[in-house]
Amino acid sequence: MKTVSEIAALRAEVAAARKAGKTVGVVPTMGAFHEGHLELMRRAKAENDVVIVTLFVNPTQFNDADDFDKYPRDVDGDARMAEGVGVGLLFTPSPTEMYATGFDTVVVVRGLSERLEGKSRPGHFNGVSTVVTKLLNIAQADRAYFGEKDWQQLQIIKRLVADLDIPTEIVPCPIVREADGLAMSSRNVRLTPEQRKAAKVLSSALADTQLIADTGTHNAYELAAWLHQMIAVETLAKVDYAVIVDPSTLLEIESIGNGALAAVAVTFGNVRLIDNHYIPPPMGPANRR
């Protein structure tokens, strides 16, 4: 595996791959790799001749300096893991490489960026949209791979790619979970053993919400109330939001008749976790209450 840190060097590698008639896939990351990241890389490798993994802890998407400082970093360990699944190229730019002196451009996806995570973390998605636009422009890949755990981020990226005519296919990849159901996240390592055990409530509450929907409860507000209550009973869980929304717009809906997304954000101690579950359109009639 080759590691480059300069934009010009990455572009030269991509140009050489293109000249050889090879397809290119890119997996944008902030490092601290876990099995979820590796699954994205494996999918990219299966579908492309050359795989680029970008590793950049983007300072502009953190609205809490302490959160940025505490974000786990292990570049050497990440490099070994990426090489282990067959990644050919690792891009590790510095903040000054990505944001040169005088940088003054921000990519904003209105509407989508202002809901859920955007409401709780003002400015977060402007940083995400800007850095992803830059990375897609730098890599010029055929396909880019993103996990569905960050569902809102995925919808925002799909929107900006469509709106800005970026010729890269966005490939969504399923959430990868621990054996007990907890969605894999780089933040999980910051949980204490007690918090880690409590965090299982997220996946169990989402699964139970699907079961309730399957019994015929299709009212989105009722399902959201159940979802919130099932998480709130865990004393270590501080619920930011537990909602049922339209999967594309992330706006609240009255019914799950056309499919819905159950989305949650919950803090355990000082560790904020997000998770979601797509609820497909019901097969049968709804229960009347």
Can you walk through the features of this model?
It is a single chain. The chain is an alpha/beta fold and 289 residues long. The chain folds into two domains: 2-173, Rossmann fold (3-Layer(aba) Sandwich); 186-278, Pantoate-beta-alanine ligase, C-terminal domain (Pantoate--beta-alanine Ligase, Chain: A,domain 2, 2-Layer Sandwich), CATH 3.30.1300.10. The protein is 39% helix and 19% strand. It contains eleven helices and nine strands. It has helices at residues 7-19, 35-47, 65-70, 75-84, 95-98, 117-120, 124-139, 151-163, 193-198, 201-214, 220-232, and strands at 2-4, 24-29, 50-55, 89-91, 143-147, 169-173, 237-245, 260-268, 271-279. The strands form two sheets. Strands 1-4-3-2-5-6 form a six-stranded parallel beta sheet, sandwiched between helices. The chain has a three-stranded antiparallel beta sheet with strand order 7-8-9. Strand 8 and strand 9 form a beta hairpin. Helix 7 (124-139) crosses helix 8 (151-163) and helix 10 (201-214) runs antiparallel to helix 11. The longest helix has 16 residues, at 124-139. It is globular.
